[in-house]
Amino acid sequence: MYLQEEPSVEVFRDYHYINRQKEKAGGLSLELGGVTIQRRRDVPYPAASLPSHPKNWNRTWFYCRDTSPEGENPLPGYRPTRLPSTGDLPDRLSTEERAQYATSIAKIKALIANGLTGVDLTRCWVSWNILPLSRRARLMYEYTGELNDPLRFSTAQLTEQDVNSTVKTLLGEKQEACNKTGLKPFYTKNPAPPVSIFPAVYSLRLTCLSYMCLPFRRLKRRPTPISGRKDLTRP
């Protein structure tokens, strides 16, 4: 909703990486493990701290009835060997790729400079009742703000207190940080401000013209006298 463009896997992998769970560095993959997607360090990205562990998970514990057809294994299939850990994982963007997505990367930096935080991203889809990883007919910045908007998965109107408590549950930030909004999301009722490059170009042209119009003078430099020798430039 902030970038106002289609999601890009290439830009995503420039800010995140896949972390394998292994027995030790350079060792085999865990028998009961997996992979996680984590944010790269030292990258300008509006991230937020996550909880160290899930809380109150037992309150949502439930049992599921086995409805698998007769003769079909009710559990997902497994393999007798571990997953290989020698395959190459996606790396950061190359120089050519970075030039292709330079506009998107510049937008992210500009949004952060204007106050965008990771809490803002979470507060947005929580308050709008929009699932971030879901198939949608429109982009989130096209959200109308109406309760019957097709982008929403529920027509329930959350209160400010509901949003604050939900964001606190999802993030590992303090409650004060979860209650704040750094940069309001862009949508039909709050469109992004227009951006123009003409002021910057005009300023650059004035600077260049001013530099070209400076009078050039030939400055005569007197030779520096050498220590212990007579200054031959003086009479």
Any overview of this molecule?
By secondary structure, the protein is mostly helical. It has a domain at 9-52 and 89-205. 28% of the residues lie in helices and 4% in strands. The chain contains seven helices and two strands. It has helices at residues 9-15, 95-100, 102-113, 118-128, 160-170, 175-178, 198-212; strands spanning 16-20, 35-39. The chain has a two-stranded antiparallel ribbon with strand order 1-2. The radius of gyration is 29 Å and the shape is globular. It starts with 8 loop residues before the first helix and ends in a 23-residue tail after the last helix. Residues 197-220 and 226-235 have low confidence and may be disordered.
Could you give a quick summary of the protein structure above?
This protein is 28% helix and 4% strand. It has 235 residues and is mainly alpha-helical. The model is unreliable at 197-220 and 226-235 (pLDDT under 50).
Summarize model confidence as the mean pLDDT: 80
- What general outline do the C-alpha atoms trace? globular
Topology, number of strands: 2
Percent strand = under 5%
Are there runs of 5+ residues with pLDDT below 50, and where? 197-220, 226-235
Cα radius of gyration in angstroms = 29 Å
Structural class: mainly alpha
The N- to C-terminal Cα distance equals: 77 Å
Quaternary state reads single chain
Please describe the structure with a list of short key phrases separated by commas or semicolons.
235 residues, 7 helices, two-stranded antiparallel sheet, mainly alpha, 28% helix
How do the helices and strands line up, and which of them pair or pack?
Elements: H1 9-15, E1 16-20, E2 35-39, H2 95-100, H3 102-113, H4 118-128, H5 160-170, H6 175-178, H7 198-212
Antiparallel strand pairs: 1-2
Helix pairs in contact: 4-5
